[in-house]
Design goal:
Largest sheet: 5 strands, mixed
Structural class: alpha+beta
Strand order of the largest sheet: 6-8-9-11-10
Number of strands: 11
Shape: elongated
Radius of gyration: 38 Å
Length: 506
């Protein structure tokens, strides 16, 4: 739109500058050819409209020709340009004849070449037969107005959005399947087979065969050594009656082998920890790579929803589902990235002067839609004596958001969630309390509720979903502030999480 209007303005200026060349012949005789800049601009606009669906014209509040009369949108744009001489463009979307269009306007300023028709003295009739306005160089002289149809843009946006959603869902599924297959193929299945063999040997059955075990590197070596050990033990047992001394010697050798295997098991454990580290790094990298396109998916979904704000149909419902689940996935990805940074020792806090009211307001905009969908009553309260203090507002927001999100997740319809912020002046601590009337937590599960990838029990994980990272991340972020977190809970009654953040009043 900007390029097209600039092209039209350039044509306007060219015709204005060359009026003398057009109207004077080689002998200096003047004959007005009616090829002034306004007439040419309108003519170009007519041809342009015939060749495309675009419409372009010059317009002014004090128009000379009815063809240049402004509509409602153009009137508002002209008023803006007239009020603000620094304004270089004015645009918006509009609906014309039931079709969505993009409206764009650029201002025209009076130049030296314009004064012959629009300059002083005001009231004098110019060569075109119109009364001069008495403008001076730099005065506002109207605007170029452009109308562009948006049908093709909207259609392409929808197709791109659906394509991106399908691609990234497919990519996520492929990654999950690949990770599952690799872990099962290289670690889990071989260890299960080895565990069965160890169990059989423990029962006295030395006829174990690990030759067909599919494993790599250390686990394969361990299985081979274990197979050798069982074979040697079997030979020892077969010759106990006839070779007591030999038995003792063999047992000593077996003991050495066991010690060696123990060392190898310890080394294998170290390797497994390294594999786990590589897995964490891989998840962090994949999460980072997925975050940007996922943010784009959310943004385009919100654009499509904005177009359907007054509608209530199945397509809008699907778009809302896409946005909600994309936001949940984005929060899970952010949790994984934050924990990866903390685990790598790269997490830092940026202490700035902050207001808890801003943090709570930010959290409120995220959790209230979730609570509304579940039919929950959410209350938020900030004590008036809570001061400004030094802290990392983004990380404290993540703490409150994770705790509040957990409360909403595990509270059934009709329940309540309360978020309150208080100040303990004696200890100089800001206390953040998140309580709910949800399902509660078993007492024996409280001791590991802040562990990573942990939920109260497997049935809870199946019913409510989640990764078990929210509380672990909240605890890590609290400890980055040298704070503390504790929980009180009663099964089927509810839970209360309390966070203490050092906060010396400013």
């Amino acid at each position: 739109a900007e390029v097209i209007t600039k092209q039209q303005i350039a044509t306007w200026e060219f015709m204005s500058i060359n009026q003398d060349n057009i109207n004077y012949d080689s002998e200096g005789n003047f004959e007005f050819k009616h090829m002034n800049c306004s007439t040419v601009a309108m003519g170009i606009g007519v041809f342009f409209a015939e060749m495309t669906d675009y419409k372009i014209k010059p317009t002014h509040l004090n128009y000379r020709s009815i063809l240049n009369a402004p509509d409602d949108f153009e009137t508002i744009g002209l008023q803006h340009f007239q009020a603000d001489s620094e304004l270089q463009e004015y645009w918006s979307t509009d609906t014309i004849d039931g079709k969505e269009v993009f409206r764009y306007m650029a201002p025209l300023r009076i130049e030296e070449s314009c004064l012959s028709c629009h300059g002083e003295p005001a009231g004098e009739v110019d060569v075109t037969g119109y009364v001069k306005e008495g403008y001076k160089v730099g005065d506002f002289g109207g605007a170029i107005s452009l109308i562009m149809p948006m049908d093709i843009f909207i259609q392409n946006s929808k197709q791109n959005l659906l394509g991106n959603i399908f691609f990234f869902l497919l990519l996520i599924m492929v990654c999950i399947i690949a990770i599952y297959y690799l872990v099962r193929r290289l670690v889990t299945s071989p260890l299960w087979e080895l565990e069965k063999a160890v169990s059989e040997v423990g029962k006295g059955n030395l006829d174990v065969n690990l030759a067909g075990l599919q494993a790599e590197c250390e686990i394969k070596q361990l299985a081979s050594h274990f197979q050798q050990m069982t074979s040697q033990l079997k030979d020892l047992y077969n010759n106990l009656e006839s070779k007591v001394e030999e038995r003792t010697t063999e047992l000593e050798k077996a003991n050495e082998i066991l010690k060696q295997h123990k060392q190898e098991l310890e080394e294998a454990n170290i390797r497994l920890k390294e594999v786990n580290t590589y897995k964490s790094e891989f998840l962090a990298i994949m999460s980072h790579e997925l975050r940007t396109p996922l943010t784009s998916v959310i943004a385009f979904t919100e654009l499509l929803l904005a177009e359907k704000i007054d509608q209530d149909n199945e397509e809008k419902h699907y778009l809302e589902e896409i946005r909600t689940n994309s936001e949940i996935l984005l929060r899970m990805i952010n949790n994984i990235l934050d924990l990866a940074k903390i685990e790598a020792g790269k997490a830092e806090i940026t202490l700035v002067t902050m207001d808890m009211a801003d943090v709570i307001a930010s959290v409120e905009s995220v959790i209230l839609p979730l609570a509304k969908n579940k039919g929950l009553d959410v209350t938020m309260e900030i004590a008036p004596d809570v001061p400004l203090f030094k802290g990392d507002p983004e990380k404290i927001r993540r703490i409150v958001e994770n705790l509040a999100g957990n409360a909403i997740k595990f509270t059934e319809q009709g329940g309540k969630v309360e978020i309150s912020v208080k100040y303990d002046s004696a200890k100089e601590e800001v206390l953040i309390v998140v309580s709910d009337t949800g399902i509660g937590i078993k007492k024996d599960a409280l001791k590991y509720i802040f562990d990573r990838f942990t939920q109260a029990d497997s049935s809870t994980s199946r019913k409510y979903g989640g990764t078990g990272l929210g509380l672990a991340l909240a605890k890590e972020l609290v400890e980055l502030h040298n704070g503390w977190i504790e929980v009180e809970s009663e099964l089927n009654v509810g839970s209360t999480f309390t966070v203490g953040i050092p906060a010396k009043a400013i």
